[in-house]
Design goal:
The complex is a heterodimer of chains A (606) and B (278).
Chain A lengths: L45 H5 L9 H5 L9 H17 L2 H10 L8 H12 L16 H12 L26 H4 L2 H13 L5 H4 L6 H7 L7 E3 L3 H18 L3 H16 L3 H18 L10 H14 L2 H16 L5 E6 L8 H9 L7 E8 L8 H15 L4 E7 L20 E7 L2 H4 L5 H11 L4 E7 L8 H19 L5 H20 L12 H10 L2 E4 L3 H13 L6 E6 L2 E6 L2 E11 L10
Parallel strand pairs in A: 2-3, 2-5, 3-4, 5-6
Antiparallel strand pairs in A: 6-10, 7-10, 8-9, 9-10
Chain B lengths: L10 H5 L2 H17 L8 H7 L13 E7 L6 E7 L24 E5 L12 H14 L2 E6 L10 H14 L14 E6 L1 H15 L6 E5 L10 H6 L7 H11 L16 H5 L7
Parallel strand pairs in B: 3-4, 3-5, 5-6
Antiparallel strand pairs in B: 1-2, 2-4
Classes of the chains: A alpha/beta (606), B alpha/beta (278).
Pfam families (chain B): Abhydrolase_3
Protein name (chain B): Alpha/beta hydrolase fold-3 domain-containing protein
Family (chain B): Belongs to the 'GDXG' lipolytic enzyme family.
């Protein structure tokens, strides 16, 4: 997105810290549409800012650098910084870093909240004067916070900050903060609520959940990490691109010639680039010869491949680990819990969660698991077998366990009534989806239906893990280019793996995805990966609010990666409360957590 | 203390623009939490708090970027280039042709700051700065993701800087001008400025051509405090105490601040060297 900066003040360029005018839409960290403050290019000093509270937009300069602070809140944030400094001065020096590392931090982009939580952490006696806190001043946020306050039955958001009785830290409850962490979207929601206060949450989310509207919201980022860019590798990429372009233009003779060239050149390559080129060339060939591959309905093969993928590289382990962390936190204090897993497969995620629950101080809850999966082709009941194994584990670790396997061709076939849900006061629900949601985008209306069914389940938490890439754009060539870069990075990360058999199986597992992205269309094209920004927009529009993953999950995920032999290029990154795992600087998968944002219809008593 | 040379305690708040003050104060306080008195560093929390951005081959405001990793060393460089005029070439990194065969296109090797300990090439603050550098200077910028202390002490950062210089010099696609060579400048802020200086000195010794140094408030020091150090201690976000911590974390254990990495003006050490640094 291009941004005009006609009011860029030339003097500011020489000051490295005065980053005025560096604005552009950062895809993952900025809110994108903040208004440029009209101050003839000069950044405001403290004194000037105090007098100007009218601006409801974000401070653009901070936004570009990854921090979301409302312009009207700047003076307030500056005050908190001073306060924090004072409080830090009083804390003992070794006590300071000790406390800092033991406390859990959330979403550092939301500077105001982070500062407040740090101040409370270091000085529990300090109270915040709500009148001095400019949080409630801007019109949009006050509407949202008042809705939150009126909804007393579902105190889900404050629990995030609630003091854990075992840890002894007194993080103050700051009502309404999570709802305000993305004020741009909230202000849209609040406008909707203002104009039609009698709308229920289901109907208010209807206008924006069509598949078409999300195409437009995809941002244009193409992160590229080149590892050992050898000349032949570069030539191969250019050839693949040229071939894809020919396909895009329906020039199939040209495409055919190119695909053969690629085949010859690919075998002279070594390593990741060779395999990537071969798989992409193969997929292109399918497309050129119009032999669209049937979706292999043999899920048992996919399951086996996935197990090898699980062993070879940390992506699935990271996905399970971070999702489990969010689920654990959401289930804190609950006596009976129920996990509904949309991605049951071999149930590899659940032993770790069950063990963590078993070790919970105060004892484990009763654990119920509903596993949803596709029908098996042979007569075996995969889902039931997995359930049996987990039941055996549960017995050895003394966790009360209940299981039900549920066969469905598509998640869209589900209805909440089928699942025998118990009242939320009795049993708390978590919904888990690892690499499943994107498949629903192949069928119009499916995603919307599934999300509304999820809401009917009244979950404490919904954990979503998805590939961090846009492989669902409307233009074939764009999809091709994005996926080429994505899978090149993924294959690079596998290069360092120890077991060659696991590695080969993992590559076949990924090759099936490549084939689907490149050679399939319509209902068959199920690998419709989208980015966090796109998922966020979709989920928020559907009535969900983010639950932030914290520094404790981050730290443990980092430690998990350090144990993983075969490559120290893996990186965990925090992005607005979500965690991403990537290879070097390129994020590849994202774990996010959600709760249902409660819209309480305002009823006119008169 | 004469009244005229005394720095008002509130001066930074009056002088520095609010958003800059907020940004730097936030860093200052967060960094206080990360440094431990025993000299260790809370790297996990630092990475969690760090705001990063991805490279983007699709140009934004006329600049695109991509990352390159050397498989054997793991050293990452982020390359920033002006966007090609032909929109059809957007989104692709051209690695086969030189930048120009007629004009000189400077290649600025940039070392980010962070007192040898903080930040990365993909930090949002430095990504933004490098992009602006490309636009303003019509240059290519290569931002080096050097290894940081205390996990990696002297001379790791300098070694990585040297490796990056050799890498840049050997890229045919970074060549320009009628003489078909890579026109290199070294730049850096804070610790990056220190690295740029030391890499330039080595380049001069080993006769690798560097056309110039751009040092932005470079980080140097010494056992003896300078007048401005004493006068400005704590006044503009930086304290002598935190500087000392970072030197202890970077310099070899047991060394003091008169080590040549830190104190480049120590005349005795300098007398024994002859360099041709421009």
């Amino acid at each position: 997105m291009k941004r005009e900066h006609s009011n860029l003040h030339p003097q500011q360029l020489t000051d490295p810290f005065s980053l005025a005018g560096g604005g552009y839409s950062l895809t993952s960290t900025s809110t994108g549409t903040s208004t440029m403050t009209s101050n003839n290019g000069k950044a405001k000093t403290w004194e000037e800012a105090k007098g100007n509270q009218a601006d409801g937009g974000m401070d653009e300069l901070l936004a570009v650098l990854g921090y979301k602070v409302r312009s009207s809140d700047m003076a307030g944030v500056a005050q908190k910084l001073e306060q924090l400094e004072e409080v830090m001065g009083h804390a003992q020096e070794d006590g300071l870093s000790h406390l800092a590392s033991d406390s859990v931090h959330y979403n550092p982009s939301d500077l105001s909240t982070w500062l407040e939580s740090m101040i409370s952490e270091l000085n529990p006696n300090l109270h915040f004067d709500p009148s001095a806190d400019s949080l409630l001043a801007p019109a949009e946020s006050s509407t949202v916070t008042s809705i939150d306050f009126s909804d007393h039955k579902h105190h889900q958001q404050p629990k995030l900050f609630e003091k854990s009785t075992s840890s002894g830290y007194d993080l103050k409850v700051i009502p309404g903060k999570a709802a305000c962490s993305q004020p741009q979207i909230d202000s849209r929601e609040s406008k909707r609520l203002k104009t039609d206060p009698y709308q229920t949450s289901a109907s208010s989310s209807s206008p924006s959940t069509t598949v078409g509207s999300f195409m437009g919201s995809a941002e244009s980022t193409r992160p590229v990490v080149l590892v050992d860019s050898q000349e032949n590798g570069v030539r191969l990429v250019h050839l693949l691109m040229a071939c894809a372009e020919a396909v895009q233009e329906n020039n199939f003779n040209q495409a055919e010639a190119l695909v053969k060239q690629i085949g010859f050149l690919a075998v002279s390559q070594a390593g990741a680039m060779r395999k990537v080129a071969i798989y992409f060339a193969e997929a292109l060939a399918w497309r050129i010869y119009k032999l669209y591959p049937q979706n292999s309905v043999d899920h048992s093969l996919t399951d086996i491949l996935q197990i090898h993928f699980y062993e070879t590289c940390p992506y699935l382990k990271f996905a399970h680990f971070t999702a489990n962390q969010a689920i654990l936190e959401a289930f804190e204090g609950k006596k009976r819990v129920h996990v509904i897993d949309f991605s049951m497969n071999q149930g590899m995620q659940w032993p770790a969660l069950m063990q963590a629950l078993a070790l919970r101080p105060g004892g484990p809850p009763a654990f119920r698991l509903t596993g949803i999966g596709p029908p098996a082709h042979d007569n075996t009941d995969q889902l039931q077998e997995v359930g049996w194994k987990l039941a055996q584990l549960a017995e050895t670790i003394h966790v009360e366990f209940e299981y039900r396997g549920f066969v469905a061709n598509s998640l869209a076939d589900l209805d909440a009534s089928m699942l025998e849900l118990r009242p939320p006061e009795f049993e708390s629900v978590a919904v888990n989806s690892v690499f499943e949601f994107h498949k629903l985008l192949a069928i119009p209306g499916a995603m919307k239906k599934v999300l509304s069914v999820v809401k009917q389940m009244k979950p404490e938490i919904v954990t979503v893990v998805e590939q961090e890439a846009n492989h669902n754009g409307p233009v074939f060539l764009d999809r091709f280019t994005e996926s080429l870069h994505y899978y090149s990075t993924l294959f690079d990360s596998l290069e360092g793996s120890v077991s060659s058999q696991d590695k080969v199986m993992s590559e076949v597992y990924l090759a099936k995805q490549i084939c689907n992205v490149v050679a399939c269309e319509g209902h068959s094209r199920v690998e419709r990966h989208e980015t966090l920004t796109q998922w966020r927009t979709r989920l928020v529009s559907a009535g969900f609010a983010p639950v932030h993953l914290g520094s404790n999950a981050f730290k443990q995920a980092s430690m998990l990666l350090a144990l993983f032999a075969g490559g120290d290029g893996y990186r965990v990154e925090e992005n607005n409360g979500c965690l991403m795992l990537g290879w070097h600087t390129r994020p590849l998968i994202t774990t996010s957590a959600w709760r249902v944002h409660n819209h309480h219809p305002v009823v006119d008593a008169a | 203390m004469a009244g005229s040379s005394e720095v008002n305690l509130n001066e930074s708040r009056r002088i520095v623009p609010l958003n800059t003050w907020i940004l730097i104060s936030n860093f200052k306080l967060a960094y206080n939490l990360l440094r431990r008195p025993d000299g260790t560093f809370n790297r996990e929390l630092a990475e969690f708090l760090e705001r990063k951005v991805q490279a983007n081959t699709i140009p934004v405001n006329g600049v695109f970027s991509f990352d390159h990793v050397d498989r054997t060393t793991g050293l990452l460089n982020r390359v920033y280039q002006p966007a090609p005029e032909n929109e059809a070439q957007w989104g692709i990194a051209e690695l086969e042709k030189p930048l120009s065969t007629t004009e000189v296109v400077p290649v600025i090797i940039f070392f980010h700051g962070g007192s040898f300990t903080h930040s990365s090439a993909d930090s949002a603050i430095y990504d933004t700065f490098c992009r602006r550098l490309v636009s303003t200077c019509k240059a290519v910028v290569v931002s080096v993701n050097y290894r940081r202390s205390p996990e990696y002490r002297y001379p790791c950062a300098y070694d990585d800087g040297w490796t990056a210089l050799k890498w840049v010099k050997s890229r045919t696609w970074l060549q320009s001008g009628k003489d078909s060579k890579v026109h290199v400048y070294l730049a850096g802020d804070s610790s990056g400025g220190n690295i740029a200086h030391h890499v330039a000195v080595r380049a001069a010794e080993e006769e690798i051509e560097v056309l110039g140094n751009i040092l932005l408030h470079p980080m140097f020091g010494g056992q003896q405090r300078t007048e401005s150090e004493k006068m400005l201690d704590g006044k503009y976000f930086v304290t002598i105490q935190d500087r000392d911590w970072y030197w202890r974390a970077y310099l070899p254990e047991g060394e003091d601040r008169d080590h040549p990495a830190c104190n480049i003006f120590w005349s005795e050490w300098h007398k024994s060297r002859r360099t041709g640094v421009p």
